Amino acid sequence: MEFLANLWNSFAGLFTVTPGWMTFGGWVAAGLTICLFSFLYKDNPFFKVAEHLYLGVGMGWLFQVYLFQTWKPKVYAPLMEGQFSVLIPTLLGLSLVTQFFPRISWISRYGFTFIMGYGSGLVIPMEISTNFLRQIGGSISPFIGATGPWDLFNGALVAFGFICVLFYFFFSVEHKGAVKKASNIGIYFLMLYFGAAFGNTVMGRFSLLYGRFDDLYKYSDASYFYATHVVLGLLVAYFVLDKLVLSKKNGGQEPAH
Amino acid sequence: MILIKKHIPLFICFLVGVLTLGSYYVPNVHSENYLELMNKWENIVAGFAFLLGLMSLFTSHFHKISRKAPGWGYSLFVYVGFLLVVVPAVVSGGKPMIGPDMTSLGWIYRFVFTSLSGTMFAVLAFYIVSTAYRAFRIKSPQAFVLFAAAFIVILGRVPLGQMMWDGLLSWTGYQVTDVIEWLMSVPVVAGRRGIMIGIAIGGIVTALKIIFGIERQYMGKD
Amino acid sequence: MKNALEKFLKIDRRLIFLALTVLLFAPIVKPLGLPNKNLGKDVVNIYNYIENMPERSFVMLSLDYDPATRPELHPQAVAVVKHALRRNLRVGIFTLNAGATGMIEDIAARIPKDIAPDKVYGRDYVIMPFQPHPVAVMTQMGINIYEIYDKDRNGNPTRDMEVMKGIKSVKDMGLGICITGTAMLDYYVAYLADKNKFPMAGGVTAVSQPGYGPYLQTGQLKGLIGGMKGAADYESLINDVEKGTSGIDALSLAHVLVIVLILTSNIIMLVLKYL
Q: Interface pTM (ipTM) of the complex?
């Protein structure tokens, strides 16, 4: 027993994070980031490895969170304390997994119907109050509480635009005459929404890219032994070599990008 | 057998659905107790729903490896990645930090997971730029309105754009942020609200169909 | 001429990628240093709301973002935690997104270091574990929080913690802020804020920001921090500049690039039409 404990301790000792590991981390992060970015030039094995690693690491992270923050405290610990009522939701939860075994996949229906019934029961009153009644109320209230003509104009514009958009989505009546006009105006309001959304999407995507570039810049520092530079250089060398070999093989024909 | 395989699950859905719905409109001690029990149970049941995703990923890549499908070698890295997180997690008891010290799990999160996950989504920035150049065509009045809204937002969100606006359009008396605020709080609200109500009606109808057993695709085939 | 323009229109997209890389990387190496002006109204509303809360009020901060949206949302979360703790409010950090736990650890490690070194865990702030099924958790938080959150993330009982004194459900809290890259804020508005008349605000990615206009107009949301610009605005308000501000500065050139590209391609199309 003591031998096993010692073995475990020395195994766990291997996982101590030292300053050296922190520097190495910079290399790993820069390497994985650049491998994924390399797809922008063209598909390559480094990208594929990083892509598959991402799937595994992502699942691994979720697994350990569920293990230590849900299954252990919510199932294992109560069972150890003799609270057997947790067996009901546990079995319902585990029933979901039977979906992968065709012969007994019907058992999973117990878990699914339990989740779906509960979700549906909650969603109805919420949709009615939050996204239906409150929104209609929100379109009327500016007329009551308006503090000036500009407020009143904006309130009227929201209400008018909102009704026009509803006409656009309203397919039960044929779109002609006044209905068609209203639905055409509705399209303009939708376009303003989509335009603003596109503008914001540009900022959002660039922000994410900034985040990665900022990290790459950090790892290009001397304290990380120029990890970014070296990894980038190696990858460029790979692509040059690949191109040379490729051009020998099939006369420089490269798949169109 | 059809009773156990089909009717009882459908009845569970109906019963849980109606009771949950009722507990919202009839608030009393019993309905609150019922809801509390359901909340606790659902919390645990959902904890196992994650296994569906995990098993689905594992089986699909296992099949790829066992059939030696093209690129099967890469599938091995799915398992490598999984172990890269789970082994340190077991060693550190699921703690990324112990006091001020980073554990090996925290190391993996910071240097591996953050890099991979962040970069996967950051790559989209490149495609949005090339799409903007190749596909954003202002060919109709509607497209022009879309462009105008996008133009103002893209410009007005960054300091350089704000300076450009101030330099060229300060005579209007409006700052670009004023225009964006108006855009976001008036026409965008109208457009979004129309969509919102459409989704709400759809949501309510689907939920009713599920409770009454009309919609049962999620149950799979008989 | 026509051929040249057509060729220019079909330029190898990798050149566009390169242009973006250069224009986004350059300001990181050498910041432009442009000031972040024109603060968003919805961000100021959250700031004012927190400013006007009585001391020791409880702020529920639900951090529901993962590394994929870190650059946008992490600066928002850091700024809000700083503001709330420095205003001597109690802060409870929750999460309903399993990918967020590592991000939260980052904030947890920073609180004693540079965010608010004088604040004590368990007295001034608490960090709860991840919980699955957001809707069930939110519904329960409106009834009795301890039936789900009976232990903190380290397994310590929460009921007796000083930070939780007087808190049974969200009805006893002062404000909720959900920072998320998913639809979690929609759930919070519906299942927590509206149902319990609980003041709720949010921090979201720029991509989803325009979708929350209706909730802001009806007052279902008290305020909203949108994307990196929102983070930069909040940093300006609390006078503590960090990644949000440097980020929005670095985005400047890339934003101009997008506008130039759209205009260029459309002008070329127009010229080609009449050539």
A: 0.94
